[in-house]
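INFO  loader      accepted 1 record
INFO  loader      residues=677
INFO  predictor   begin
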Amino acid sequence: MLYRSTIKMLSDLISPKALERILADAARERHTTLTALDLPTLQTILKQDVYKRLQLNVPAGLAKRRVQSVLDSLAQEASSAAAEDLSHSTQIVTIDQRARQYALYFDWPETQRLRSVLSVARQATAEGRDAEALLHEGVELLEALERRLSEALVTQGQDLSELKAGLLRVSGVGGPKVRRLEALVKQIEEAQDARTLLPAEVERAMSLNLTLRKQVESSVMQNLRPTPENDDLSSEVLFDVSALPQDAQERVKSLDREHEARLLTELGREYAVLLRQESELEQRLQTLRAASEAGEVLGEQTILELRERLSSATRQRTEQQQQQLTVLEQRLGALDVLSTSTLDAVSSESVATARQSLLVLQGMLKAGLLEQSEINELNDLVQTLEQGGAAERLLEWQRETYELERRAREVPGALADLSPLLSEARWALSNGQSVDLDPLWKLLERRMGEAAQQREDMDTRADRIMHDYDEYRSLAGETIQRLGRLADVLRAQRRLGALSSDARERYIQTLESAEALRDEAAAEFRAAREVTSAFGADALQGLLGVFDSEEGGLFGGGLFDSPGLVSDVPAPLPAIPEPPHQAALPARAWVVRQGQVVEGDLSPAEGWPTSLACEADVLRVAWLLDQAGTFGPRRLTLDLGARTWTAQPRAQDTVVACGPDLQAAEQQARPWLPGVN
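INFO  predictor   done
INFO  writer      dumping tokens
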């Protein structure tokens, strides 16, 4: 029915109960009923009554856009065949066929519930009982599965882009591990194109990427290049962190922290149902997250111990829930006997509904842990039926309290507001007292309105970031590349419809990370513009002429000693001041790829007090060559008297070399350049 679709599409802004009442009252005023509403009448009600009601919670502009969206969807729905015109058996087959595309995700609660709902619906249809409510829930579960899959594909797409970037950093290493990573990335990319999730493959690729990056970091710092005898980089000796300089140790630890933060996030998602029931384990997880964010490396053993505790607690909880369902089944058996003799029609129907709910929960528990609230809801229903009396209204109120809880769980801040009020209402109902739940619905609607406005603001921030990225994308370096990857993620998140709480949190995290990178890119963009403007009207043409000056070049006595220019040159790493004296730098060569030094010796030496100082100089020379890319230079040379730098393009890389003179620098670069002997 059209009115049901309307309620569903606006359920994130206004409670279903309130919206149904608005539609029913408006239909009565127009001398019709809710179920008999046709499209033109419903469109009028949406534009007038519903639009006015929405403005109590959200700005008029947002209310207007949402009403228009519903109008467009209803017009499309009205032109298609109505599902309710089909028999229940046909609807079951249709839902089952649609559910097959989610068969891979059997561990999802929505998949488990849908499977149980369809099983009970088949049984009810075979016995001639009404299965309309079960089928309606099946359709809603399909929509929930599609939403979850879409959100997960956005996350997998983000992981894929990070893996591709990581593969570029380590591709020069070669060996079986790199080839395995390449194969995994290709497999994940094909799955992404086919809208399929491969969580195990993503996790293996992430772990492998971490290992390779740590090995590359260590081998670069220790001037170790992979050889055929050491091709797979499997030896732990290569990244003995304690043997590295302090700054290299920090970079390796940063990689570990990043990986551990990801593992903790995945554990939180995997055991979300359990953590809502085990406050002690939830607190332990939050403590570890806080320690990781504070810069502590937790260690693999700590993560494994937490996973084991979560797994053990899940088994114990599952056994407890099985016992609870067994007791409820026995109590329902006693009510089945009463329903044939002493219970009224309403109570007998409620017993049948409870029996269906029990069957659904039993099927779900075979696949995984249940939300405790689902068992509590069934327990309250059975308890009310056992008490007898004015059961119909009490049962309706009970169902409302759990509906409130389910909806509040997906609205930021709503569950914390409603939890004490729901507890009070349930206590009153357990004692046979009446309750007024309208204030709770209004409180939830207020939170819904705030969430809808927050989503509008998030989309606006995403649009701004994507616009700014388009402005700065001509820059080279790691900052703009990372911003570009996050801009792609934001574009995908922006296209998602209603967000789950997890997806909303990820959207916010992406925005915050992208805004920080956007600010860095803006600073680099301004610096690059100032550096270019300092070259005069001929810009880079003039710059190229200065590079060969016998008087020390553009930068005078030192490459990065000029206070007017050095601070303006963008680089992925902070500038390290050069010693005041003219140091004779050793002869070395490096390979730079996408703003990262991927090969070459970066260890401290005379003139480079730290490896970071060496890396900063290398990256700045590579950046200068990149800025001259318009002219297609074959080589960039900087003669600074006591030292000479040279940079040459090589496919997708840049080879940078330094020596006491040009001949020494070229000698160092020659092994890295194809076709040069």
